[in-house]
Amino acid sequence: MLGSIAKLLELYPDAKVVIEPSSDPHNYNFLISGQWVTIKKDHLSNREKFLLSLVSQDNNNKSINNQWWNFLVHESDKIPAEKINVRVLQFEVQKLESDDRANEWLSVFEDTFDDVVDSFWINKYTGILIEKETNANMDKLEVQRMIELVDSDFYTKSHVYVGQFWPVNDKLPNIFDMERQLFHKSLEMKERVNNLSTVILDFLIEQNLKNTDMFKSLKGKIDIDSKTTQMINTLYKCDSNLAKTSKMLFLHRNTLLYRMEKFHEQTGFDLKDRDDLVLCFLLLK
């Protein structure tokens, strides 16, 4: 416990060095010099949590030799692939007993996806999987069902953050910076599998995302005309009640459902899902 960890324990006497991340929801975990440290959340401000996560991330970057990772964390300007859209799934897995077991877990996890571009461990407990966008990608619920089966087979406890699909270009590293923060935020939540829609409201309380590359890109991705705007606003005001919404819009219920399905196909956001609806409502502001 020399160097960085010793200095950290001087600043936070209540912090503890542990073998693996604490599962207590009241604790905050971060990795320093290959060692997990845990501290009570109420002993840290939001700014301190963020700074500690950056220290942890920087510490990990040094030992990873991967072109995708180097690009995503601003270590390299070389774009690994062009003319494709990808999403990054970030995961934390607890209770893996060895490196061989971790590699076996990752192999099974990777095999459940059809178009994996790359996957690798960042450290002993966390890793990422990069997936190409196709017509057959799993949604959050399907990922959740899959991870439950994997955890059942391996007796592990996993958290997954499912990123959005983005073009592979020079904006992606900045967007990934934001998704890293959202991933850390998702580890504090009850659900094991999260995405932008499930994390964003809690995160917005602490951060202002409106001027970030992520939100600008996301808003540009959605073609919102006056009819779509009216539909989203009315659905939100009617608390997702389709009968009430269709009545207020003077639409047949089937017409409303058709427009919602078309919007889902075009954007990937399901307006029948409350979290997706709230995210789209926020994007209109």
TrEMBL record:
SUPFAM superfamilies: Homeodomain-like (SSF46689). It comes from the Bacteria. Residues 232-284 form the PucR C-terminal helix-turn-helix domain. InterPro entries: CdaR-like_regulators, Homeodomain-like_sf, PucR_C-HTH_dom, PucR_C-HTH_sf. Gene3D superfamilies: PucR C-terminal helix-turn-helix domain. It holds the Pfam family HTH_30. This is Regulator. The lineage of its organism: Bacteria, Bacillati, Bacillota, Bacilli, Lactobacillales.
